[in-house]
Design brief:
6-stranded mixed β-sheet, single chain, alpha/beta, 508 residues
């Protein structure tokens, strides 16, 4: 009979209402959204768990739970409306785009590609706590988290700050009895424990720092750091403090990041092979590799250089959109324009082939590198929110748009190419439109702006070809003239000779 009851309890537990679990998850992610911003990855998770909590509530209605849920939903909606028309709210991905995850790791610790999420979260919380705790003279600190690993991390942070004398995590074992030690790490701080610690340090007060984990999804870590002040009279609430730290473990995204970079570079090399076959110019491979590297690395330099005049993120979007547009143009177009200058600098030290007349394929390779840079904030935002197919669709469209515009922009910036420079106005507009749509995290706008950019690129290419055919008709009279002229004028990127001959009407 007991076994039957035990099994029934397990079954009931498995099918029990999960309202509290989902409600707490929604609440915790909402707190993270206050820092990360609306329409961020944690914001999407807030909405996800609110919906799950609401679904659970329908299974087992409760007036008290309904009141709790509605209060949280109202708070979330109010926060959304308050932040939506600010720069940070309207362009939530901008924080990720404007941060180099390698050059400035301190700025990007909410998303970790290297260390475990709990390590970063505890570090963030501990550093915040060292600033919050009020102290004039050096004070002694002990650590009583249930996780010894977290105690070690907190110890390192406090030990590096001259305001505190951080005690090794092993020292309480020398001071307290086994029972007191168990109470100490269970946060059951008795007067006897405090008296022993005060006697050990020979001071009138001690700090006890404790880190506690808050439930989130597997790869997300949110911790609360308690800095509690104790004297011989007990707990001093007025001088104590509470902070939090969080981090999202993105290390699992390394395979996807590497794969996308390989695919982008592979696509560029595949297209380069086509031009090499037509021109027998194998130096193109080296040139496009340099171009891809420039496109991937240069945004790390460009964005911090213009961050010095970045407007306040809480300002209305109408007053700050100019900066977002500037960043978009700088990231997508500036590397293509800068390639000539960078290449000349490299040529001062290494003998390299000329890039004259190769603007299209160079622009394409640079744009592929830029896409590698932009894929990082994209996957951090949508990687856990959209399905693989949805990500392929939206980022695929965006990639095609950037690559097409890069190809044509490269030809425009190529001084030896015949493409009219006024076409660049089209790509200044499309670059701004693409970037604004991306960081606005509106997938419909992203798809529409990508399609418009692809159409604009095709129209410019078509217009250029029409101008070229007209020019050939005027300049050349035979097939031999065309073949010779094509190479001299750097026109090899256009259509096959026979097709060209057919269009121009030149006799064989």
């Amino acid at each position: 009979m007991k076994k039957v009851l035990f099994i029934l309890l397990i079954v009931v537990g498995l099918f029990a209402n999960n309202f509290e679990k989902y409600f707490n998850m929604a609440q915790n992610y909402y707190w993270l959204s206050i820092d990360e911003g609306i329409k961020s990855s944690v914001w999407f998770k807030t909405k996800k768990y609110l919906a799950l909590a609401e679904k659970e509530l329908k299974k087992e209605p409760s007036k008290q739970n309904l009141k709790k849920l509605n209060a949280l939903k109202d708070e979330v909606n109010t926060f959304y409306l308050t932040k939506y028309y600010t720069m940070d709210g309207y362009f939530p991905m901008l924080k990720l785009v404007s941060t180099s995850f390698f050059l400035f790791p301190k700025k990007s610790r909410q998303h970790t590609l290297a260390k475990p999420a709990d390590f970063i979260a505890v570090e963030n919380a501990s550093e915040s706590l060292t600033d919050r705790l009020k102290t004039v003279v050096q004070n002694h600190v002990f650590f009583n988290s249930s996780n010894p690993y977290w105690n070690e991390i907190a110890f390192e942070i406090f030990n590096a700050n001259g305001k505190y004398y951080a005690h090794l995590t092993e020292e309480p074992k020398e001071i307290l009895s086994d029972k007191e030690l168990k109470n100490f790490y269970s946060n059951n701080i008795t007067p006897d424990i405090i008296n022993k610690l005060l006697k050990y340090v020979n001071k009138s007060k001690v700090y006890i720092v404790r880190i506690e984990k808050t439930p989130l999804e597997k790869n997300d870590m949110y911790v609360t750091a308690y800095g509690e002040v104790y004297t011989k009279n007990g707990y001093n609430k007025d001088k104590s403090s509470i902070t939090f730290g969080y981090s999202i473990d993105e290390r699992g995204k390394w395979p996807v990041l590497i794969l996308v970079h390989i695919l982008l570079l592979g696509l560029v090399l595949f297209l380069t092979a086509y031009f090499v076959k037509k021109t027998q110019n194998r130096s193109l491979y080296l040139i496009v590799l340099i171009g891809f590297t420039v496109g991937r690395v240069l945004p790390w330099v460009i964005v911090p250089s213009i961050e010095s005049f970045m407007p306040n993120g809480d300002l209305n979007v109408l007053y700050t959109i100019w900066w977002v547009v500037l960043v978009g143009i700088a990231i997508i177009l500036a590397p293509i324009y800068a390639m000539d200058l960078i290449y000349k600098k490299i040529q001062n030290y290494i003998k390299l082939p000329s890039i004259a007349g190769k603007g299209g394929i160079i622009g394409l390779s640079i744009s592929a590198g830029v896409l590698g840079y932009l894929f990082v904030p994209y996957i951090f935002t949508y990687g856990d929110v959209l399905s693989v197919w949805e990500n392929l669709l939206y980022f695929g469209l965006f990639s095609l748009a950037v690559l097409f515009s890069g190809y044509v922009s490269g030809k425009i910036f190529d001084k030896s190419d015949k493409t009219e420079e006024y076409y660049i106005i089209v790509f200044v507009i499309t670059s701004a439109l693409l970037f604004v749509s991306l960081v606005h995290t509106d997938l419909i706008w992203l798809a529409v702006s990508s399609i418009l950019t692809i159409i604009a690129s095709f129209l410019v290419i078509r217009m250029k070809k029409s101008e070229f055919v007209k020019e050939v008709k005027q300049k050349f009279e035979s097939v031999e003239d065309i073949e010779k002229g094509l190479h001299q004028e750097n026109y090899y990127e256009f259509e096959y000779y026979n097709d060209l001959i057919q269009k121009t009407g030149v006799k064989k």
